[in-house]
Amino acid sequence: HLVSTVPPKAMMPSANCGQNGLYPGSEEGWQVYSTASDPDGRCVCTVVAPARNLCKRDPRNQQLRLLTEQVQNVSQSMEVVDLRTSRDLQYVRDSEPLLRGVDGHLHTYVASPRTLTSKTLQELKGQMSQLRPLLSVVEQYRLDLQMLATLRMELLNLSIILTAIQEEVGAYDYEELQQRVLLLETRLHSCMNKLGCGRLTAVSNPITVKSSGSRFGSWMTDAMIPSSDSRVWSMDGYYKGRRVLEYRTMGDFTKGQNFVQHLLPHPWAGTGHVVYNGSLYYNKHQSNILVQYHFRSRSVLLQRSLSGAGYNNTFPYSWGGSSDIDLMADETGLWAVYTSIPNAGNIMVSRLDPRSLEILQSWDTGFPKRSAGEAFMICGTLYVTNSHLAGAKVHFAYNTNTSSYEYTDIPFHNQYSHISMMDYNPRERALYTWNNGHQVLYNVTLFHVIQSDG
Ligand SMILES: *[C@@H]1O[C@H](CO)[C@@H](O)[C@H](O)[C@H]1NC(C)=O
Ligand SMILES: *[C@@H]1O[C@H](CO)[C@@H](O)[C@H](O)[C@H]1NC(C)=O
Ligand SMILES: *[C@@H]1O[C@H](CO)[C@@H](O)[C@H](O)[C@H]1NC(C)=O
Ligand SMILES: *[C@@H]1O[C@H](CO)[C@@H](O)[C@H](O)[C@H]1NC(C)=O
Ligand SMILES: *[C@@H]1O[C@H](CO)[C@@H](O)[C@H](O)[C@H]1NC(C)=O
Ligand SMILES: *[C@@H]1O[C@H](CO)[C@@H](O)[C@H](O)[C@H]1NC(C)=O
Question: Which end is more exposed in the chain, N or C (fewer Cβ atoms within 10 Å of the end residue's Cβ)?
Answer without folding.
Answer: C
